[in-house]
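Recall from the previous lesson that a structure prediction takes nothing but the amino acid sequence as input. Here we apply that procedure to Protoheme IX farnesyltransferase from Tropicibacter naphthalenivorans. The sequence below is the only information supplied.
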Amino acid sequence: MSDASYDSSIQEGEAQFGDYFALLKPRVMTLVVFTAFVGLLAAPVPVHPFIAFCAVLFIAVGGGASGALNMWYDSDIDAVMRRTAKRPIPAGKVTREEALAIGLTLSVFSCLFLAFATNYLAGGLLAFTIFFYVVIYTMWLKRATPQNIVIGGAAGAFPPMIGWAAATGEISTASVLMFCLTFMWTPPHFWALALFMRSDYDDAGVPMLTVTHGRRATRVHILVYTVLLAALAIALGFTQVGGPVYLTVAVVLNALFLKGAVDIWRRDEDASEGDNFLTERKFFKLSLLYLFAHFGAILIEAGIDRMGF
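The prediction returns the following C-alpha cells.
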C-alpha cells in the first residue's frame, strides 16, 4: 500500500494526548527505563540524583522516539495485524507525518541532552540505538529476513549499557553481559508470541520464523536460544554486578525457562491447535517476568553494595 493511498484511508478523528503518548510505545518504554536505570545504578560510580534522573528521562525519550518512528514506517502492516490495528495511525487518530515529526524531534532532543547531561559516549550510544531500531531493524531486517527479531533485538538491549556509560563514561564486561542478557532473551520471547499469533504475521507479510520455517523449526530455535541465554544469565552473576541474590534468581528462573523451552520443543504439532497453545502462552508469560526479575536482582545487589553489606 502506498503512503498516499494509506494516508487517504485514515478516518477523521481528533487526536487526544493519549494518542500521541501511545506513539511512544509506553509498554516498551517501561522496559527501556527500568533496564537503563538498573545499568546506571549498578555502575561502580556514584551519580548525582538529578543527573541520574535526567539520564533516565532522556533515555526514555529516545526509546519513545524510536517507537514513534517505528509506527510511522510500519503503519501499513500495523493496519492489517490484529495486535496493532488500534495503534494511533491505523486507528486514524494521528497522521504519519505527525508521527515522523514527533519521532525525529524527540530523537535529536534526547541524544543531545543526554550527551550534555552525562557524556558523549552515552549520547552516541543512544543515537546509535535509535538508528539501529529504525533503520536497520524496522526499515530493513523486519521485512527482509526471518532473523529480523534476532538482530533487531540489539536495539532493545542497549539501554542498560547506555545507563552504565552515562555513569562511568565507559563500556565494561558487566554492561556488555547486561546487553547480552536482553539481546538473547528477545528471540525466544517474541518467537513464543509468534507461535500463537502466526496469522498476524502471515497477513502482514512479515517473514517471522514461524511463517518462513514453520512452528517445528521455531520451537527448536527457542530451545537453542534459551540454552545460550541461561549460560549468559549465570555468567553475569560472576561480574561486579552479581552476587548471591542475583545468582539465586538466575538459577531458579533459568531452570524454569529451560523447562518451558523443552516443553515447547517436545510439543506435538497436531496437539498445538487443540489446547490453544497453552504451553507457548505460559512460556511467553514467564518471559515477561524473566527480564524484570533478573534486572530487579541486579538492582537489589547494587543496593546491598551501596549499604556496605
